[in-house]
Every structure is written in C-alpha cells, then in structure tokens.
Design a protein that fits this description.
The protein has ten helices and 21 strands. By secondary structure, the chain is α/β, with parallel strands linked by helices. The strands form five sheets. It has a nine-stranded mixed β-sheet, sandwiched between helices. A four-stranded mixed β-sheet has the order 13-14-16-15. Helix 7 packs across helix 8 and helix 8 packs across helix 10.
Length: 451
C-alpha cells in the first residue's frame, strides 16, 4: 500500500515544505511554492530486491569507454564516455553546445552506433540546415526527434533502442502528467530522473544540454548537478573564436583537464596543441606584459598576464580584473604596497588574461606582481622569461605544483629564462636559465635589474 503526502516545493530553488509559504526561506522568492504529491515507498517483493555482492566479484571492462571521435572532449570526460553515464553540458547561449553534441552524434553514427537526438528547441529542418553547415554526412544511424513531451522521447527510445541519447535541452522537456511549466524545478528534476534511469537500464550514455542563469550557474535545482555523473561547462568570449571545455564534476576521471576548440564558419575545430595559442607575437618585451605557464590538468598553457596601472582621478580608484581571482590580486597588491613601498592606492589597476581563460591557482601570484611593477614603472621585465610562484603575505615566494612540466613546455616554446621559488629543489631544464628566488624583492631586482 502507498500513502500520498503533500509537499510544497519552491519553483526557484527546490526548497520543500510541508505547508504553503508566501516567501521561500531559502532563496527569498515570493509566491513560488507549488503543491507536489509525493507517493510513499512501494513495498518490493523479495524477487525485486537487489542482493549485495562482494566488491572483488564486480567486473568492469576498462576498454568499454565509448570514444566520441573528438579528442578534446574525450580527454575532459576521462578517456571517453562510460556506458550508462549521464553528462550535463552547460554554457552561455550561442557558445556552441548544440554544435558540439551534434558533432558527437555524427561521429558515433559513422561508427555504426545508433544515436537519438531529442531536440526540444529546434525543428528537424533547422537541424538539417545546421548539419549541412557542419559538413555532417547523411547516415542511417542518426535519428532526430523534435518534441518537448517526455512520453514522445520514451516511445522513441523504446522503438530505436539507441546506443547514445542527446537531449537539447533538459529545461525544455516536460511531463504532461504534471501541471508545471517547462523549466520549473519539478519538471527539470522529473525529466532528468527519467533519462538517468533509462541510461542505467540500457547502458546508453546520455548527453543533457543545460541552460545557465545570468549568474552563470545551471538553471534548475542544484540536485540536477548531484544526480548526473559528469558536469561540463563550455566557456569562452563570444567575441572570440576560442572555446574552452572544462569539467566541474566527473565520477570517472579528473576535473582538472580542459579541452580547447576554435569556432569557425564550419563549426568547432579541435586545438590539440594549445600552448602557443594564447601568445601574441613579440610579446615578451612590453611594459605590463608577463608570461605565466598555467597548468590545466596534464596540459601546460602559456598565457599573457596583462597589467595596466594609471593615475586615478576618482575618489575610489578602479580595480578591474578579468580572468583572475579578485581577492587574490588584491592580496598581491597589498604585499607590494607593504613590502616594496609601492603606492598603488591612488592608481587605477586593470588586469586581463589572454584568450578569455580564468586562472584560479595561486602560482600566478609572482606573474601578477611583476606585471604590476612593470606597468607601474613603465619598464618591461626580462625578455623571454616566465614567472611562476605563490606569494605569501610576508613576501616569501612559495613552491608550486607541476613545476617541471611548466618549465619544459616553456623551454619548448622558446623561452630562455624562468623565475621559480627557491624551495623547489634542484630543478634544471636544457636551454633555460633558472632563477630561484626566495623573496619578492629578490625577484623584482633580478627581473628589472633595478626598480
């Protein structure tokens, strides 16, 4: 026997209450509670219950991952798609999410895999036009379904029995048995749960395209990110043709890997060697410009840290940092003012990272400090040089991770000098002069000869 119980859920954040509330205590939204019927637990017979098994008796084929044919995507996903996994792909409108999954569908179909593409936003004609622009070949294994109702998707899955399913987008799919609009918390949770259960039963991987809010988070309940296996973000400046694929969650691999793509008129193009991609020509001898080798998973990417410090005519000087952590840069500026007696309190400070990438690791501190002083003094630092190191509040240069990988990649791209923390041990790279510095003042004196 089952017993129904009433639950009121906030359609903005998913907060649940046993009674209706005018204002949500979690997100503060007004009149956002709607009634939901929660069925009690169903009594399972002994034949329906799962039996516990020993961990050592569970077999798993490591070679069973499904390769998408897009190397950058496979790397971020952990080496391919795991059977039965659910991948949530999110990003800003127009960034290229639908283009990426359509290329994935085409590659899988060419390998003989049946792919069902459920499009809730585009008509079959629009998808055909997109596929022709991308140069996708006609194949008998790629099925398109332009529907919003979950029952239509269920019937298509039962008839096609696909090896992979793509849903574009999960916020536009709804269950007509429940009187809630598309994109509401209940509908997103309900439809996502359906595709997840189907993936686990059929072992067919599922791609869910997700919208994001103006704050940059995935629209819908937070539980959506918890119940899926992989969460990927497609990022990039819409005014630039570069696109970055990052993993925010991955149950089958590392979340530190990134994939780099270039968007052109024919679609997305992989950029497997992206180390030099974000560097401009003759960029090592300009005031305010410093090169930093950023480590993204197993890949080292050299980036330009660009600084501009000018006199301010405002009561409160501007602080604008693009691609860098705001609090981290302010910490470095405070150390410069305290330890090196550089007065930046009356200056506007601007920072930018080339290519639209975002750096969160503290190893960029030394590059930020040198770029600040270079722009402040209008003197370029030592040419053909990279700067790596974390700065403590005392001005000490602290060690960082993956130092050898950063140095080897920098040397491969022609850089002759590197500033690294003194506590890094005995490091050496052929063709590169290593400056091991213990304190920020020592690094500044060597980088500029005199300040």
């Amino acid at each position: 026997m089952t017993k129904d119980r009433k639950v009121f859920s906030c359609q903005e954040c998913g907060y649940a209450s046993t009674k209706w509330l005018g204002k949500c205590p979690s997100c503060g939204a007004w009149n956002s509670f709607h009634e939901e019927n929660k069925n009690g637990h169903r009594n399972l017979s002994s034949g329906e219950m799962s039996r516990p098994v020993l961990l050592k008796d569970i077999t798993f084929d490591k070679q069973s991952r499904l390769l998408t044919g897009i190397g950058e995507l496979d790397r971020v996903a952990g080496g391919g798609l795991v059977p039965g996994s659910v991948i949530l792909l999110a990003g800003e409108p127009g960034i290229g999410k639908s283009t990426l999954v359509l290329l994935v569908a085409s590659n899988l179909a060419e390998k003989g895999k049946k792919v069902l593409y459920v499009s809730a936003e585009e008509s079959p004609g629009q998808l055909r036009v997109r596929s022709e622009r991308l140069g996708i070949k006609n194949t008998e294994n790629l099925f398109l379904l332009s529907e919003n109702e979950i029952r239509a998707a269920e019937n298509a899955i039962e008839s096609v029995k696909p090896d992979a399913v793509i849903v574009d987008s999960i916020q536009m799919i709804y269950d007509s048995d429940f009187d809630y609009p598309c994109g509401s918390v209940f509908q997103v949770r309900r439809t996502a749960q359906f595709f997840i259960e189907n993936a686990k039963k059929s072992h067919a991987p599922v791609f869910l395209i997700g919208h994001i809010t103006k704050e940059g988070s995935i629209a819908g309940p937070k539980i959506l990110e918890h119940i899926v296996d992989v969460v990927l973000y497609f990022e990039g400046d819409r005014l630039s043709n570069l696109r970055i694929l990052k993993g925010n969650k991955n149950r089958f691999g590392s979340t530190e890997e990134i994939g780099v793509f270039r968007m052109d008129e024919n679609g997305l193009i992989e950029v497997p060697d992206s180390s030099r991609l974000f560097l401009s020509n003759n960029n090592t001898s300009q005031p305010g410009l410093v090169i930093f080798p950023s480590q993204e998973g197993k890949r080292t990417i050299l980036l330009e840290i660009q600084s501009l410090i000018t006199p301010s005519y405002l009561a409160v000087p501007r602080r604008t940092f693009t691609g860098l952590d705001y609090n981290r840069v302010n910490l470095v500026i405070a150390v410069l003012e305290k330890k090196l007696r550089i007065n930046l309190g009356s200056r506007d400070v601007y920072f930018n990272v080339s290519g639209g990438l975002k750096i969160s690791e503290p190893a960029v501190d030394l590059a930020v400090a040198v770029a600040s002083i270079s722009s402040y003094k209008d003197v370029p630092p030592l040419s053909q040089t990279v700067f790596i190191g974390e700065i403590a509040l005392t001005g000490e240069i602290r060690p960082v991770q993956h130092l050898i990988n950063r140095l080897k990649e920098s040397a491969r791209l022609g850089f002759k000098n590197a500033f690294v923390p003194a506590e890094s041990g005995n490091v050496s790279v052929a063709g590169m002069k290593i400056f091991q510095v213990r304190w920020l003042g020592d690094a500044v004196n060597l980088a500029f000869k005199k300040v």
